[in-house]
Structures are given as C-alpha cells and as structure tokens.
Amino acid sequence: MTMKLFDAHCHLQDPRILNKTPQLIATALDTGVVRFAVNGVSEKDWNLVKEMGESHQSVIPCFGLHPWFIEERTPNWFNTLKEFFQITPSAAVGEVGLDKGSHGKKIDFNDQVEVFQRQLELAKELNRPVSVHCVRAFGDLLEIMKSTGPFPAGVILHSFLGSAEMVPEFANLGAYFSFSGFLMSMKKEKATKMLKADFAGNRCT
Hints:
InterPro entries: Metal_Hydrolase, TatD-like. Keywords: Metal-binding. By secondary structure, the chain is α/β, with parallel strands linked by helices. About 40% of the residues lie in helices and about 20% in strands. Strand 5 (about 130-135), helix 5 and strand 6 (about 155-160) form a beta-alpha-beta unit.
C-alpha cells in the first residue's frame, strides 16, 4: 500500500517550472502525493494559483503577499486578496511572513509587520489555515501571533528554525512545524532539542 503524502508548501506556479507543472503533479500523484498546497507570493501570481487549483483537484490554492514582494503591492492589494478568498472557499492564506535575513533586511521591517499582521488577522477572520515564512524574526512572529491568535484552522511555520523553547508557545496558538535543508545549518545540540520538542507535541508536517 502506497503511503499518502501531502506537500504542505510548494510553488508550482513558479515560471521556472510552470511548463512542467502538469507532469510534476502527475508523477507526484503516482508516487503517493495526494495534495499540494501551492503558495502564491504576490498579486502577480494569485490568478495563476487560482487557475491551478481549478485545473487540478489535488491542488489547494493559497493566496498571500510574501515579505519579499511587499514593495510591489498595489494600493488595492488587500481588497484584491479578500476577493480571491471570497471566490475560492477552499483556499488557504500564504505565503506570508517576516524576514530579517539577507534578502529580507533590504525591505522595511515595519512595513513587513503591517502587511503580515493584516493577512494574519484576515486568516483568523475567515478561519483559513496560514503558511508562514519566517527568517531570523521568530521573536517578532511569536509576539504578533500572541496578539492575534489563537488560530483554530492552523498555522504552518515553513522551514522552522526557531528555538525549542518557542515550540510550545507556538503550538498553543495553533502552529505546526515543517523543516527544510536549512536545518543542517543549525548546531547539532540546538537542532536536536528543537526537533524533540516538535515531535513530542506531534506538531510536525
């Protein structure tokens, strides 16, 4: 029996692979991946993500303004975002978040916080799951989530690299944790402690 898997975070609308997306989905389905959460990152790709969800039953569309792209947003971005959720009941919120990394530090952090908080509040209002990108800003993220949460529909902290001590606090707000290859950049002791905390609460995706 093939194990059923859920790709909780991907960008199948990426122009670099878009022409191969149908083939990628078909191959993944054959190997047991039954759902794909396709995360939009800016106003420019929300419609493409929506169309992908309509064309592929396995795709769960996600609409959000990623912190890297907030400077490109239009004055009407938030109303446009709400309209996408109104016409796409199955959609989740994402990819949204905060970034103080090498790329994110070029973008005004107060602006990032404002955009992120509005989307987080919308997710709670609509009771939609949220996919969160966070780089070197886990303290800020936790405070914002505390002020807005909890989130019964769930929050996925994509590529989590926060501390073990933060795990229970995030989990109490409705968070789940996913990991990427960046985990290998952490010190072994810190990574082990953090992973034990995640698995102990059965909050890994």
